[in-house]
Amino acid sequence: MEELTNQLYIKAKELIKEVEDCGGMTKAIETGLPKRRIEECATKKQARIDSGQEIIVGVNKYVTKEEASYEVLKIDNTKVRNEQIDRLNKIKSERDNSRVSTLLKRLEEAAKTGKENLLAVAVECAKARATVGEISSALENIWGRYEAKPEIVSGAYSSTWKQADLEKLDTDRVEKKVKEFAAKNGRNPRILVAKMGQDGHDRGAKVISSGFADLGFDVDVGPLFQTPKEVVREAVDNDVHVIGVSSQAAGHRTLVPALIKELENAGLKGQDRPVIVVGGVIPREDYQELYEAGVDLIFGPGTKVTDAAEGCVDLLMKRAKH
């Protein structure tokens, strides 16, 4: 126990020094250092699980042959959205809109000059029944909105796999198939990893992006909170073979059909459109609905990154033959 505690202490000091060398945590965050370290750690852990170096009972060891069924609460997203719109409209019809407008302008001025306590003014806006969106927009008018620059951790997934004591590595098999696809098609398979709606859980999407890149895919990572139309525009601009939708917040039953509709509106149907892959927390009972909507592949919890990549390249190779 003392040895483990000491190892933790030594490693923590190394990380703290790395942050201090950047000029402090604020500077480190601006450079994206903490985010990269977290994503690198998550990618390596996934590689250890996929390769069997790290055992998780029920996931990669002693897995039950029959998958247990669970009853999942289904929410009507359209109904919830309409109810929220009605609530907002009711609030706006009952409040003093003139006072709200005055306070929002005051909030903008406070953000611009720094002469007032910003939090205090924001609280006054909220008490007057200004919405969170209106308060955020007032601040955005002065400061703009932060735009994250998606980055992919390179080498973490494949290098961790190579540490496994295995005669044959799954990564080698998948890399070979990717190279075969590239040789026949003149370029690597290209995937856009997308996060749509209000789903802000991007750790899984980043692990997939890093793993696929290490296996030879060209990977584009979309920003958080995209609309289906924005995803389609990015997919068309980048001429991707695959659109991979990461769903961790139960939005797939609404957003994925909307994405496929946008693809059709862009003239992309059947074999002409990118392969649609959905991964993440997808209840088994939703699979058929997604397949009927036009989804090609679904990868649920516990799927190896190598299996997902192989499934994608196999389908692309099959498509190319037709």
TrEMBL record:
The keyword Metal-binding applies. InterPro entries: Acid_CoA_mut_C, Cbl-dep_enz_cat, Cobalamin-bd, Cobalamin-bd_sf, MeMalonylCoA_mutase_a/b_cat. One of its GO terms (cellular component) is cytoplasm. Keywords: Cobalamin, Cobalt, Isomerase, Metal-binding. Residues 188-322 form the B12-binding domain. Gene3D superfamilies: Cobalamin-binding domain, Methylmalonyl-CoA mutase. Its cofactor is adenosylcob(III)alamin. It holds the Pfam family B12-binding. One of its GO terms (molecular function) is methylmalonyl-CoA mutase activity. GO terms for biological process: propionate metabolic process, methylmalonyl pathway. It comes from the Eukaryota. Belongs to the methylmalonyl-CoA mutase family. PANTHER family: METHYLMALONYL-COA MUTASE, MITOCHONDRIAL (PTHR48101:SF4), METHYLMALONYL-COA MUTASE, MITOCHONDRIAL-RELATED (PTHR48101). This is B12-binding domain-containing protein.
